[in-house]
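Hi all, posting the design record for the shared folder.

TITLE: backbone redesign
STEP: 1 of 1
STRUCTURE INPUT:
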């Protein structure tokens, strides 16, 4: 068994696509109309056949309170591996990405936490 798709709940799929592709650098893999929403997935350009990130609408009644609780407690919904957290922090900051935690060394990892503009916090992490 292996992970094929993982979801991030977003308040607007177009805005999310702009952020995740335009700022973070993911690449669109699938964009299939499904009524009011779409099956919209992205992949890492480093692994185009790897795990897909589904930009899933947060339309379910439980989604918004769940997201708000995580945001209020400062809990990231996903963690993305990067080679150099400080370099990625600088690159993304220059693109206007808002960080709620600047790079911090935490023993075996260095992490930073950013706001995805769609109601979520994301962590970037580098193994030390």
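Okay, here is what came back for every position:
SEQUENCE:
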């Amino acid at each position: 068994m292996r992970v094929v798709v993982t979801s991030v709940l977003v308040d607007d799929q177009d805005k999310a696509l702009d952020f995740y592709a335009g700022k973070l650098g993911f690449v669109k893999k699938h964009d299939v109309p499904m009524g009011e929403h779409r099956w919209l997935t992205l992949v890492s350009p480093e692994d185009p056949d790897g795990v897909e990130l589904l930009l899933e609408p947060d339309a379910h009644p439980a989604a918004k309170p769940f997201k708000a609780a995580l945001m209020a407690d400062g809990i990231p919904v996903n963690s993305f591996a990067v080679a150099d957290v400080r370099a990625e922090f600088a690159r993304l900051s220059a693109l206007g990405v808002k960080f709620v935690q600047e790079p911090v060394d935490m023993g075996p990892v260095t992490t930073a936490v950013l706001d995805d503009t769609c109601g979520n916090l994301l962590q970037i992490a580098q193994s030390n």
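COMMENT: Strands lie at 5-10, 27-34, 37-43, 52-57, 78-81, 99-106, 109-115, 121-127.
Let me know if anyone wants the other runs.
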